[in-house]
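Reproducibility note. Readers wishing to regenerate the assembly model reported in the main text can use the exact inputs given here. Chain order matters: entities are listed in the order in which they were concatenated for prediction.
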Amino acid sequence: MKRAGKQTLIFQNPPAILSSSAVVGPKEGEGPLKKTFDLVMKDTLCGEKSWEKAECKILQEAVKIALNKVDLKPEQVDFLLAGDLLNQTISANYAARQLAIPFLGLYGACSTMIESMILGSVLVDGGYADTVVAAASSHHDTAERQYRFPSELGVQRPLTAQWTVTGAGACLIAKGSGGPRITSATIGKVIDLGIKDQNDMGSAMAPAAVDTITQHFQDTGHSMDDFDLIITGDLASLGKALAQQLLERQGYLPGDKYSDCGILIFDPTQDTHAGGSGCACSAVVTCGYLMQNIRSGRYKRMMVIGTGALLSPVSLLQGESIPGIAHGIVIENENGYRDQKEM
Amino acid sequence: MKRAGKQTLIFQNPPAILSSSAVVGPKEGEGPLKKTFDLVMKDTLCGEKSWEKAECKILQEAVKIALNKVDLKPEQVDFLLAGDLLNQTISANYAARQLAIPFLGLYGACSTMIESMILGSVLVDGGYADTVVAAASSHHDTAERQYRFPSELGVQRPLTAQWTVTGAGACLIAKGSGGPRITSATIGKVIDLGIKDQNDMGSAMAPAAVDTITQHFQDTGHSMDDFDLIITGDLASLGKALAQQLLERQGYLPGDKYSDCGILIFDPTQDTHAGGSGCACSAVVTCGYLMQNIRSGRYKRMMVIGTGALLSPVSLLQGESIPGIAHGIVIENENGYRDQKEM
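Running the prediction on these inputs yields the following structure tokens for the assembly.
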């Protein structure tokens, strides 16, 4: 059976994550996870003439580093699945041009990394591809000027706001063994409880995250007990607290098994307010910190839930609220995953 | 074997297109294909307060009509794969909120309809879904003001420009029989020959279209002779002529077997200059006219090549050229498809 319940895909030949990489900007490189990144850029322009070009470069670097780790060249990769936050996802498009890997562009806002890992796993598990790279990027300054105000204006940010992570994550998903396994995935619905404050995206996305987590439990019969870690993408402090409440209201007691990439990536002293956000938030934490911990065996089975706020500045100006989406993926330690399945 | 050559997926259990629908604006409803559309909107606002909201409504209508034809409700569909041209693909996001079908957002510019049909076919053929809706939309006025100038300004358009189609196409892809079959698909690379004129997108996309068509031939051993029709998404008159030249230079003589949705959808008297464009161009021609002709048996096997220009206004302002991408899908008449495979 390749689907459980309504929304969960079960991979019969769980694809392996052969390698992964996380490239970040200088601020992220000073944060608590600094030792888990493969490359920290010296500045936010990365030698380019614009932040947009810098973001595209970071994304390419992340893909190249992931491939270098296993001595693969871009032309040996079957497909690239990637996306980002910029209008018309230009970081991914231009990176795909440079890498010359057959390309499928995705847009799931900050859930894009997990969306690309899910579809990449489908292509590999289903036998359509041997090797797929899943990747996503974001950049603080490109996001600020596109969604809010140009950084140069120095507009004050409310304490509910999150800091878009500058960085990119990439992982090489392939058939066979040689790394953590992607064993199942839950594709989310768009959920909208009516929040209109674009400075509180975490709260807007929390209901979607909880819907996907609980749907995964319903579909598979699993519970919190079956996971060492359940981690959302970028709900940050407000959204995480709300998600926790919503989970508890439904009878799930996540306790300290539940965490959020947007909280892990920055230190409260870094003045990012509620925490991190952006496609790169879940991408670099998953491809760096989380992958290291699942490889080491600290986590035997975890669920990473990419969370996306599906607004645009235009939709907000036209009076719309902010819908959220969340896609979940279950990653298991390579040695542990068969035993875990018996549970 | 589920993949042939480098870039072509072969569907072992070719998914059926159980139903499809095409909804268009008034201008398209006056064009040569008017009898092939399911619904022609009376005006471009469709009773909404903005063109963006109208586009979202058109997309929802297209999905509902496709489902109504086979007496299905949105909650009976496993997954929705959709995208559009607007920043952050808001038409698809808000439509997915209203339809409440688990959702994967895509961005492939005007290739999005074919990208969604490919990934939808993978999910169904691979056994991960029983029913998937693939859909895409565009709207002339939302595209004009986002990419070029607000329609109200009345800026003169050069003769190389194309007219973004107002409309949406949707098709229901399912396992089993009951409609035309999707038998294979070729995922394209990003190709960029350096064109920077955003008023000549057809020429920018033509090299990608030809790359995907010839890759499909290389991967499968098929040739022009194996198809009744090879049709590109929205190269329009300039791009089509260029694609034809490039194909001939490689020894392929497409003759009158090769056509383009952007040429079919408007009449030269409609003052659209080079022809139609936008996600909806290939979407409504495929889901309307082409599907009728493949159902009737006029075409036994065709390849539809969705073509996308992967620029943004920002990337052009920063001096970038316009990269193109093209994804191809092979659709066969239900009764003919097994014989065709023997070829």
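We highlight two features of this model. The two ends of chain B are 17 Å apart (CA to CA). Residues 339-343 of chain B have pLDDT under 50 and may be disordered.
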